[in-house]
Write a structure and sequence with these properties.
Elements: H1 4-21, H2 23-43, H3 47-53, H4 58-67, H5 84-94, H6 99-116, H7 121-130, H8 134-160
Helix pairs in contact: 2-5, 4-8, 5-6, 6-8
Transmembrane segments: 21-41, 53-73, 80-98, 137-160
Keywords: Membrane, Transmembrane, Transmembrane helix
Protein name: Citrate transporter
Length: 161
């Protein structure tokens, strides 16, 4: 980096390398946005089906999300930064529940995953740093966060339902 040209070449090669390293993630995020957009547009067409399946009580829905919160693990259908983006889009698109209720409702299971999912980089780093086995982390963390999720979903109902 003795001159501007060398620095520019170094910066360009670093950017090219880093983008190629995360190309799969970028494509996943682009597909996720397209998928959730399509899901929200089609949710209106499926509204009668969802209206028949989904509970109409905010309390029942909140408790169901608390009980099913582990479905957010590994970017599952309740993780809003994973497959749960489509779940959020569909629930919002049906218009059965207001978005002020749906946001915290969906965010609680996501917090379970962010806290205890072994695919989260900070959890992997922490486990490696503390020399804790991922199996032990899951056995202790998931049940605790599951209970916390049920309590938090009850609070979501209390404050937003």
């Amino acid at each position: 980096m003795k001159n501007f040209k060398d620095f520019t070449n170094f910066l360009n090669s670093t950017i090219q390398k880093s983008i190629s390293d995360i190309a799969g993630l970028i494509m996943f995020l682009m597909a996720l946005i397209m998928f959730s957009g399509a899901a929200s547009m089609d949710a209106v067409r499926f509204r009668p089906l969802f209206a028949a399946i989904l509970p109409h009580s905010h309390l029942v829905l909140a408790l169901a999300f608390g009980i099913l919160a582990p479905l957010a693990l590994f970017r599952g259908p309740f993780h809003v930064w994973g497959a749960g983006a489509a779940t959020a889009a569909v629930l919002s698109g049906t218009g059965l529940f207001n978005d002020a209720f749906l946001l915290p409702l969906l965010y609680v299971p996501t917090l379970l995953a962010v806290s205890t999912d072994i695919t989260q980089s900070w959890n992997v780093w922490g486990l490696d740093y503390m020399k804790v086995e991922s199996k032990d982390f899951l056995k202790l963390g998931v049940p605790l966060m599951w209970i916390v999720s049920i309590i938090n979903e009850a609070l979501v109902f209390y404050f937003f339902g």
